[in-house]
Amino acid sequence: MPPLLRTLRQRDLLYLFVGSVIGSGIFLTPGQVLHQLGGSVGFSLLAWLAGGLLSLLGALTYAELAAANPEAGGLYCYIRDGFGRFFAFLYGWCLFLVIASATIAALARAFTRYLTEILPISDIAATIVAILMIAVVSAVNVWGTRKSSDLQNWTTLVKAGLVVLLSAVLLSLGHHASDLPPAMPAAQHGFSLATNFGLAMVAVLWAYEGWQFGTYSAGEVVNPQKSFPRAFLLGSVILIVLYLVAVVAYLVALGPAAASASTAIAADSTRLVLGRWAGKAIAATILISTFSATNSVILTAPRVFYAMANDHLFFQKFAEVHPRFRTPAIAIVALGIWSAILASAGKFAELAGGAIFIGWIFYGLAAAAIFPIRKAAKHTALPYRVPGYPWTPLLFVLVAAVIVANSVYAAIKNPADFKFLELTIALFLLGTPSYFLWQWSRKRTPS
Known about the structure:
Blueprint: H1 10-21, H2 25-28, H3 30-36, H4 41-68, H5 75-83, H6 85-118, H7 123-143, H8 145-173, H9 190-208, H10 224-254, H11 256-260, H12 265-274, H13 278-300, H14 302-310, H15 329-345, H16 348-368, H17 370-376, H18 391-413, H19 420-444
């Protein structure tokens, strides 16, 4: 069976890092974050900065793990090597059923939502468009890693440039800069502020979601020992700056009160500053952004299922590499089909919330894997060491645990608003017997 080709350069990895993150979140969620924090501009900006720094801590930790073990699968491999096959399987299981597939479904639905701003279409037509979008991106990724990476590079450049251009226009033409200083303090205090800050962080982390996807393609990166640390560090800095500037630009355009009430803050702020026609321009921007983010997930996540199949923990067909295109074609198609089913069901909003919650359980676990992996390799020279060890990964793990615990608390307190806890329990209950089924199947399969 032909292996995967190492065709992704450091530049490709940087574009993949940035492009995986910039989806629809930065265009939609800043108003939700501000509302959650009682209209406090200061704590809203702090949440966006904290989300970026948290992602940076995780990215630097994963860069060491990726450089030391540059094989396809990323987080799955780190959890497997650090904590065993069972927890690694549960991660891959959740990645396929919810984390990756629900993210793709949510992005596809966001794509159709903003397409209707340009071209009004029926609900049935919107579902068909969502499925077609997933099918097109899947086909490109089957065609070749180099092809999908080139597509990712160009769409990332376009959407990052549009975020910069939009921010510049709003900052120069907005009239609410003087409203920001009085809105800096917190209206909430104590435990209420801490809880709401944690819930606001869930929305922030949805906007930052995707920075870990690059690790899945480690088996196709040229010179991963140098490429991962450099691309992940630079990508994190770029995203923090882009997001903070964009959030300030929205506030300057709308003012804190109007921004807090907005569920589509990019469109609302641009429409106020430039007129109604600008809504179509923002819709076109988000179309490009969501298409690019969808491509990044389908480019990377199937590599986890490929690695699981090689470990005899998933369908063996997923380990097959296309003889001509040298991609895990069956794994890509399977993820595309399941994502299309979720997009058709229309429950993407609940599933996307579940994807963030479930994902952060495993993101923290993968980062914690650095401790047993380092201990096992204490006499081995590592090509890259995360700065500030052990505090960098430890802080990331602790904050991830706080985010998960805070989300559980909120789900118990308001069960009607948080369906993801039930979803998580169901996934784990289904995943446990499935793991032992694949283990049993492996023992029966001749070597």
